Amino acid sequence: MKEFKDKVALITGAANGFGKEFVKEAVKREMKVVAVDIEGEEVEAVAKEVGGDVTAVQADLTRFEEAERVVNLTMEKYGQIDLLMCNAGIAIPRYVWEVPVRDWEWITHINLLQHVYFMKLVIPIMRKQGTHCHICNTASVAGVITSNGMPAYHATKHAAVALAESVKYDLECVGADIGMSVFCPGFIQTDLHHSERHRPEQYRDDSDPYYSSPEFAMGQKTAERVIVTGKRLDFAGPRVFKAIEDDDFYILTDPLYTTIIGGRVTDMLAGKGPKLSNIRP
């Protein structure tokens, strides 16, 4: 995607973290932006802060009908969608035998099904436009490698990467003029460790003793430590938009990950199981 000026970008998870950086970069490139987040006041503040033609929309993207409402609002206001960035995401730590089923459902809806919802709705629109468009889904380096203590996160991020790969092939098979990228960041100072404050009501049960347990508290502290000691995220907007401009598919944030991923593939071909190791760059 070489031209950005006056094009329309739909960006989810836009109130903080990578989403906010993407909104900033889109505005710098003179795009019109629909910024979506479950935190309505916060995404409104982002729209005011960055200026430009930014429409803030509050939405709970665990629901297909909410994604549908966002797309309809975008088309009513701008009449087109040129860049789709499915960026909203959450992290749920701790072991598979500890995490409540409701949390698995929540993280699956946000980290995976949100991508499905928007691509299902937006790809037909992009194909009808007859202009070059692009989709960039945010996954994680956790979608191409694994570690301990985060099975729900790894499972949904691996699925998000596989989904993007498969959709890329499908778009090529039907001759769609739509680029596809998957952003796989790792250990960056985002808002991911504050996932709990974004929990929708339908996934909340304060009577469940798990949420007051030492295991839950330990998981939250682990997530916070990983995030706050990560790299600054202000590089993300220029880095990702340059990759979109160059039509890159995999967008990684550290050269080390290329080596690790290569080693993982070598082990798979040799029939070996995954190795637990320190993957931080």
Helix content: 40-55%
Number of helices: 8
Q: CATH first level: which class?
A: Alpha Beta
**Mean pLDDT value:** 93
Task: Name the beta content range.
Answer: 5-15%
Strand order of the largest sheet: 3-2-1-4-5-6-7
Low-confidence stretches: none
| Shape designation | globular
Q: Based on DSSP secondary structure assignment, what is the total number of beta strands?
A: 7
Mind telling me the C-alpha Rg? 18 Å
Please indicate the count of domains: 1
Order of helices and strands: EHEHEHEHEHEHHEH
Write the CATH architecture name. 3-Layer(aba) Sandwich
Characterise this structure.
The protein is an alpha/beta fold. It has a single domain (8-269), classed as NAD(P)-binding Rossmann-like Domain (Rossmann fold). The chain has 8 helices and 7 strands. The chain has a 7-stranded parallel sheet with strand order 3-2-1-4-5-6-7, sandwiched between helices. Helix 1 (17-28) links the parallel strand 1 (8-12) and strand 2.
